[in-house]
Amino acid sequence: MSEDAPATALRAQAIDQSFGDVDVLSGVSLSVARGEVAAIVGPNGSGKSTLLHILAGIAAPDGGSVAVPREAAGARSVGYLPQRPAFRDGFSARDTLGFYAQLLDGVDDEDVAATLDRVGLGGVADRSVGSLSGGMTRLLGLGQAVLGEPSVLILDEPGSGLDPAMVERLFGVVGDLAADGTAVVVASHELPAVETHADTVYVLDAGDFAASGSPAELLTETDTDSLSEAFLRIVRAQVGESTVRAGVGGRSSKKTAGADTAETDDTAETDADDGVETDADDSEVNGGE
Fold first, then answer.
1. Which CATH number covers residue 36?
2. Does residue 101 lie within any of the structural domains?
3. How many domains does the chain have?
4. What would the pLDDT profile of 166-181 be if each residue is shown by its tens digit?
5. Cα 5 to Cα 274: distance, rounded to the nearest angstrom
6. What residues does the ABC transporter domain cover (predicted)?
7. Are the beta carbons of 277 and 152 closer than 8 angstroms?
8. Structural domain containing residue 43
């Protein structure tokens, strides 16, 4: 690594995860640098949420390891935004983040105000959560995830159900966070936004990454004009390869997620916290909220 290369903020190696007889993840590895936006895309049921839970330290893998360098005492290492964040309707946006701030060392009211401004909610800080639009509620969830300035931010489908303008606004905030040095891992079906804002795209299918690279590299490799087209070509090629393998080698004793298994979405409001170090034999998340 050169002196100018950004430091690695998160590293996952050979992640395996199964549920019963279903192999969801098989030997998945990735590394994300500070200031990098890494997008994970894939068909429904391909294991994206499962992988994010493992990266965030919410779940331990069957095999492999995840390492996030520990920050200074009191700092937060990982921030996590689930697919559907749930907050109390009667609380204001300010009160909501104030509640989460109490769970973090060294985070005060000034930090709450700064975070609301950072995600574009400073002007509605005293409005009740119940009066916020779906997009604003998602931005509030993003604010919860970035309280304490974590070095790694993990986002599960942050643009799901939002209109294109709000998706672009949200990804713009994500880009600003990365520009400040945050490593961002985002799972998303919003491929136009991913193409614009992601530095690296990982295509997850059949339990592993079928392809990875910058958006431009994936377009070149697939001879396509958009990330949406490239994604379809990669996934179709993967389906064809799996079919050939099944025909030559016979059926596996285990099923692979993505073909006929729906991935379970996480709907709980959960944060991963300090010093995530997870592996198959010794899993511990310190300071979880």
1. 3.40.50.300
2. no
3. 1
4. 999 999 999 999 999 9
5. 25
6. 10-231
7. no
8. 8-86+153-279
